[in-house]
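Board work, copied verbatim: Cell shape-determining protein MreB
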Amino acid sequence: MFSNAEIGIDLGTANILVYSKDKGIILNEPSVVALNTETRDVLAVGAEAKSMVGKTPSHIVAVRPLRDGVIADFDVTTSMLKAIMKKASKQIGALRKPNVVVCAPSGSTSVERRAILDAVRSCGAKNVHVIEEPVAAAIGADLPVEEPTANVVVDIGGGTTEVAIISFGGVVSCNSVRIGGDKLDEAIIQHVRKQYNVLIGERTAEQIKMEIGYAPIDHEILSMEVRGRDLVNGLPKTVALQSDEVRHAISEHLLQILEAVRSTLEDCPPELSGDIVDRGVLITGGGALLKGIQDWLSNEISVPVHLAPNPLESVAIGTGRSLKFIDKLQKATV
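↓ predict structure ↓
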């Protein structure tokens, strides 16, 4: 009954999403694992593990086994995937051996793709297909990827930003930069450290980015109180941050993303350039939710920029749907 269950997995640096053909998104968990360092046992996975980040005793660490969109720690990733598949099977019913489509960054090497395939296979999947992240994002955002027209996707994830021009089911031109939400968080941590001598954690930096983070455009100044540890006397301290400081702190990384978009458009065949002017660029991924990024990108590249209907879920939805025409998209079936 369940032998031909089909699921799509968005194996993201920040979140893992699982999509089922029948039920849509059935799981959305942070890509975090809590480990006991003495026994190497997995104590918690997903949201439960994320709530432990920076708050655990010395023998327990909360780690993120995926870095820059690829597997950094194979064993921990496998344990995490097993736990995620277990949760998913409860949602769908007893999954015997599902067919799985999993996405990989377009700039990933064959070794990195092999690691993703092996990790998913070891969780009991029947057939595993790997598709490129921007293609999955385009399918998930309802773009006509099978038609011979240019679809430009900018997928700003946690670890990587993928920029791709897709036409006729394949990638015509693409660029992948290892800059995403994580790098923006790091830039905010460094700024608060330099400016105020206060050390803040990753979760706080992420909260700052979401609440008062802005792309490099003029905007109404927002402020926010931030708590951290004073590096001079070691005591807790509260500082008031303003959105123009955050904008300045993250602008360098955003300019690198812009550079990737420009160089991808420069490689575009002239026949497809006309389509891009008409159809514009689609932004997706968690980074697409940064305030002002749509207007800023549109001003910089003089092309309309649209936000995907579900930026956080586009890739997962696309991986699940892509099974219909996986043969056309297939590049890395093993």
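The mean pLDDT is 88.
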